[in-house]
Predict the structure.
Amino acid sequence: MMRASSPALSDPPSPVEILQKLIRFDTTNPPGDERACILYIRDLLQSFGIQTHILAKEENRANLVARIPGRGKAPTLMLYGHVDVVTTTHQEWTYPPFEGKLADGYVWGRGALDMKGGLSMMLHAVLDVVAKGCPPAGDILLVILSDEESGGRMGAGFLVDQYPETFDGVRYALGEFGGHTNYIGSRRFYPIQIAEKQLCWMKATVRGPGGHGARPMRNGAMARLGKMLTALDRRRLPLHVTPVARQMVKTMADNLPGLRGVALRQLCNPCLTDFLMKLMGENGKTLEPLFHNTVNATIVRGGEKINVVPSEIMVNLDVRLLPGFKPEDAIRELRRIIGTDIVLEVTRFDPCPSKPDMNMFAFLGDVIRQIDPDGVPVPLLMPAVTDARHFARLGIQTYGFTPMKLPPDFNYFETIHGADERIPVSALAFGARALREVILEYAAC
Ligand SMILES: [Zn+2]
């Protein structure tokens, strides 16, 4: 049953109203405590006659699944998003982060962009087609998740492990991250995430002679640790121009006039990539992860007592791999920098497909262009991870698509996870309209 029995359904709340409600639930993760927020969404969906299921590994870490029957013109399309948010501690906010304040044309609050804003668009779009009695092209599987910000063990990872049958027949999904305006000069680009880098965590063990703190120790574990960290700071892992990065850069270059376009195109020339990124300064730094596997030492443990020289020190390495690369590739590349006498062990690897399925990309780009005719959709390789990697294990291709037309002076990345996260009211309306168009019109891709 999609509709409540007979009376006509009223209009759904606006994306702004939904977002304000969502922001007012403090779902800071950890601990998350997403349940109350998920129950609000459940009640909202049920008030429009949509059946829902709650699935939870732990009671307070609820997830919601709902299926909205379609016209049978397309296979099931999944729309998913997370309700948990990151911390606001030690941040100075203009308005309280969980108030959902509407001011100066923005909705302010933690999660406004990442990603309660995107969820509000999805929920509004779904409720709108249900309320107006216009079924989607195919079934819509709406999945509202907890725990994305801490790895998805209670959310997407849990559902994929324990309830994979929920996703039978799903080939494509819309989630974060992408669809928002990125300006180069006056040109408006809309990056749509099609792939992401792969998380590959490692443990490095540095060993050396230990002993009494009163005896001078040369070339012990501490000194070797110092050499390793210095080497990692001075050198980077080798350059790789992957097909996804090439496609992304080429699309942007083709749409930029003059010298800018020419220079950008040369980024995919391996002889010039690193040189050009250096010339580009800060912009070049943001591009670096698209052309290199990367590594950061993040945790060091070693030494118990001030008068004992440790014989073993452990360092956690946060390694991120480009699509198509495996942990053994990263180990080989790391060995060239840190040598062979440090033990490297992979502690976690979340693989992603080496090649994205681009079948739905052109359609999503058309939807953007219908609403913003001067906008240029760009395939995006995301340097970080999202819940897309969990669903990729079931063969589901996610497109990061929470469309927002943003003003040129709005720095999207400045406030995500930072203070004064906010979203323009007009961007919420833009996204809700685009998503409504997608769920009504997408065809069998
Ligand atoms: Zn997010």
User: Anything to note?
Assistant: The domain at 198-238+293-349 is CATH 3.30.70.360 (Alpha-Beta Plaits).
